[in-house]
Amino acid sequence: MTYQPDPERYNHMQYRRCGKSGLMLPAISLGLWHNFGHVDIEDNYRRILHLAFDQGITHFDLANNYGPPPGSAEENFGRLLKQDFGGYRDELIISSKAGYRMWPGPYGEWGSKKYLVSSLDQSLKRMGLDYVDIFYHHRPDPDTPLEETMTALDLIVRQGKALYVGLSNYTAEQTARAAKILRDLGTPCLIHQPKYSMFERWVEGGLLDVLEQEGIGCIPFSPLAQGLLTDRYLHGIPQDSRAAKPTGFLKTEQVTDEVVNRIKQLNDLAQQRGQSLAQMAIAWLLKDNRVTSVLIGASKPEQLADSLKALNNITFSSEELTTIENILRS
Ligand SMILES: NC(=O)c1ccc[n+]([C@@H]2O[C@H](COP(=O)([O-])OP(=O)(O)OC[C@H]3O[C@@H](n4cnc5c(N)ncnc54)[C@H](OP(=O)(O)O)[C@@H]3O)[C@@H](O)[C@H]2O)c1
User: Fold this and answer.
1) pTM score
2) Could you read off the pLDDT of 118-149 as tens digits, one per residue?
3) Which is the most buried residue in 95, 100, 131, 323, by most CB within 10 A?
4) From residue 214, how far is each of 45, 297, 308 by CA, in Å?
């Protein structure tokens, strides 16, 4: 079946400026960490991609190691890009990353120029692309000089292999240092990708302030805490859930009674707001205008459709915010 995108797609989405750059990103972006590997079903992830684009999601986030096996999410995405989105490359913001272990030996992980340049070349081949829109250093490297890693990002942009660069999992202090080096090199840092959700608040201890000062956008990952902040685990662990899958990064041990108790209370509040818990968790992040886009995952098109409705209400009363804080502290 030939895919024809919805001509109305740009009327469904809100777009936000990424820091002080010229780039707008959709308020909700789609990540391909899980559910797009060779272990997954093509018909399902193809439908997820179609729905995303039809609803105005222009940004798709990948990394060298997404799968499993590592690299297979980029391969699968590349194949569908060619097959279904061939004429739409200029409407897409595609990101990839390098930082985690991708191949054996001393050049297959961390932050050397050797690793970053080789890894991006591999990612471009897998996806069949000439360039990615955003290339990230995936995690800070304690041993490589920050100057070398940032010079590699600058080089990649000058070579035309990426349009913008970003940082992921860098602390506030590391981000401030990296941003200065990049600015001096003439390749400003576009965006930071941190783990941030109602269950994971570290960015509030300084990173968000640094991003605002530096004019860097913020795209929180795992906004649903890998599915915990949804209705998935309200009544046990479903067989098709990430926690139950052997390839899932979420472990059954993380679905504790304490967590389920909090999820139930949050779910009650979401229902009072007329939202699903997933929608409330996404809205809770978007209420802060320092957050450019929320980077969600989905294992089914129905989940994506549900999550997108978060945009119908992203404001919270002060009573609702206090209730959330009390539940999270309980
Ligand atoms: N930079 C980094 O270090 C880093 C690390 C991790 C992730 N990321 C990026 O962030 C993206 C998102 O991460 P994530 O997949 O952990 O995000 P997430 O949005 O927190 O979790 C996605 C999972 O939540 C469940 N779900 C989603 N929508 C739902 C809904 N409406 N109702 C019920 N359940 C729902 C599904 O779980 P089931 O599978 O159980 O159905 C889905 O697989 C990744 O794809 C990747 O691009 C980056």
Assistant:
1) 0.98
2) 999 999 999 999 999 999 999 999 999 999 99
3) 95
4) 36, 28, 29
